[in-house]
């Protein structure tokens, strides 16, 4: 990785135009995800995040499942736009699925009752950090990435298709591939309304 940290942070964007190519090997993608899973922090070092990488036909199958599921709930007159969007994700190289292991969270709730209500929140925060680390790291390697949330609509089908443990709760889906279009220009709210300093 040749970029410095903030250059990578600034360059990370949402890419909707992607194709079925990758500028790096499957082994490199796996290495990035493993390192992210190992080194992203979690409350109480709970390490409750779980990740599944789908490549090839498995990637295609995820988005076929998603399209089929949505076709049953989206009105037919509105489905064309939905189908187009799903097809854009399917046209990518792979997808990262993010989960939370509820059994880990429940165990912590039992051990530390004082913080019981916070553990699900902290788990979501840690999972968000993991998503961001993987997203940014994949983009450093030249991949276009976006983050999607078709859970809980697709949860049961995903669990059945890939034999996902019952205690894993699907949180997000991250399709990626070689970029085919530039992202939209990024818009910023005034920093003065978002950041305060007292000294």
Summarize the structure.
The protein is of the alpha+beta class. It has helices at 5-11, 26-39, 57-71, 79-90, 102-111, 119-140, 155-161; strands at residues 18-19, 49-55, 94-101, 144-145, 168-179.
Topology readout:
Blueprint: H1 5-11, E1 18-19, H2 26-39, E2 49-55, H3 57-71, H4 79-90, E3 94-101, H5 102-111, H6 119-140, E4 144-145, H7 155-161, E5 168-179
Antiparallel strand pairs: 1-5, 2-3, 3-5, 4-5
Helix pairs in contact: 2-6, 3-4
Description:
The chain is α+β, with helices and mostly antiparallel strands. The chain has seven helices and five strands; from the N terminus they run αβαβααβααβαβ. Strands 1, 2, 3, 4 and 5 form a five-stranded antiparallel β-sheet that branches. α3 packs antiparallel against α4. The two termini are 36 Å apart. The relative contact order is 0.22.
Structure keywords:
7 helices; 5 strands; alpha+beta; globular; 5-stranded antiparallel beta sheet; 44% helix
Q: What oligomeric state do the depicted chains represent?
A: single chain
What is the average per-residue confidence, as pLDDT, rounded to a whole number? 96
Overall shape: it is globular
Specify the helix fraction band.
40-55%
Output the structural class. alpha+beta
Low-confidence stretches: none
Task: Tell me the series of helices and strands, N- to C-terminal.
Answer: HEHEHHEHHEHE
Determine the number of helices (DSSP H or I, runs of at least 4 residues). 7
Q: What percent strand?
A: 15-25%
Instruction: Round the Cα radius of gyration to an integer and report it.
Output: 18 Å
Number of strands: 5
N-C termini distance: 36 Å
How would you sum up the major sheet? 5 strands, antiparallel
